[in-house]
Write a structure and sequence with these properties.
- The chain is built from 13 helices and 5 strands.
- By secondary structure, the protein is an alpha/beta fold.
- It has a single domain, classed as Rossmann fold (3-Layer(aba) Sandwich).
- It has a 5-stranded parallel sheet, with helices on both faces.
- Strand 2, helix 2 and strand 3 form a beta-alpha-beta unit.
- Helix 7 runs parallel beside helix 12.
Length: 296
């Protein structure tokens, strides 16, 4: 038996404001989440099985009373083996997924992987060019894990259905990245309500902006060469400062024909996601679920 049960999981997706949501959840006096957000440390994953239950539960701070326990890790959405492993550690769990235009998510993730030296430091259009040769739906798998995940993390409908095979639709809430940017207060109130805590609480982190890449070549090059944690922290801070100074930047341009082609390739997954959203209770889905139009 675990030392305590988990009541909710923020399951992803990557580069969709999950860090923002983590801090807003951590701010709430009733909610307990791990002291640090570790993507690979998710319940049921490889690291969990290697390090054990004690390691996992020791990541949570001590708490008095009866906290509402939960976790935030984007790899929950990517790993299809997780849902069936959760029941021994949960009681009536709730799930929250944040989704973003799959092409925009892909671009942001591409630069994140370049910054982490997981992918070659190539111009955006050149780096994404191999995907343009695929058929709609991206049926081919890539040998490089990080390259493969650039597209697979955008198969939102497929990932959500994995959870819906094990849990009722009423337990799953979906929020769009655009909603976080446009109305963060309403988003966090909906999330608190879904979890079952006081939704009048105003988290100090509410107006913290979701992380942004600056696409600065010099900082990217420095970060790729940085070996120590402190140097990486300095590089990350520089990215954040530049992002604030260049608040209106939209990232490096992607040729319109390339962007349109990627949207066409993602369209089967966009349609699938739209269908899955329709299966959720109205209170648990975005106000606008016409994703074909929204993400055109």
């Amino acid at each position: 038996m675990p030392p305590f049960y988990l009541h909710f999981f923020v399951i992803g997706a990557q580069k969709c404001a999950t860090s923002w949501l983590y801090y807003c959840l951590r701010d709430h006096p009733r909610i307990r989440v791990p002291q640090h957000k570790i993507e690979y440390g998710y319940l049921g994953g490889k690291t969990f099985h290697e390090k054990g239950e004690a390691w996992y539960f020791n990541r949570f701070p001590q708490s008095s009373g009866e906290p509402v326990n939960g976790e935030v890790a984007v790899d929950y959405m990517l790993d299809p083996t997780v849902p069936e492993q959760l029941p021994p550690y949960t009681r009536d769990p709730k799930f929250i997924a944040l989704l973003r235009h799959p092409v925009e998510r892909m671009i942001s993730a591409y630069y994140w992987s370049v910054r982490r030296s997981q992918l070659p430091n190539r111009p955006l259009a050149e780096g994404l060019a191999p995907f343009l040769q695929q058929a709609p739906g991206f049926p081919e798998r890539c040998a490089n894990r990080y390259f493969d995940e650039l597209v697979r993390r955008g198969f939102y409908g497929e990932h959500l259905e994995t959870y819906l095979r094990f849990f009722e639709p009423s337990r799953v809430m979906v929020v769009l990245y655009d909603e976080v940017r446009q109305a963060p207060h309403e988003v966090i109130r909906r999330v608190y309500r879904h979890i079952g805590v006081d939704d009048d609480f105003m988290p100090p982190s509410l107006h913290t902006k979701p992380k942004k890449n600056t696409y600065n070549k010099a900082i990217v090059a420095f970060e790729r060469l940085s070996k120590g944690r402190e140097l990486r922290r300095i590089a990350d801070l520089a990215h954040r400062v530049l992002a604030r100074l260049q608040a209106k930047q939209k990232g490096p341009p992607l040729p319109p024909d390339v962007h349109a082609r990627l949207v066409e390739l993602f369209r089967p997954h966009i349609s699938h996601t739209q269908k899955v959203l329709r299966s959720l209770p109205p209170a648990n889905r975005p106000a606008d679920i016409d994703l074909i139009k929204l993400w055109n």
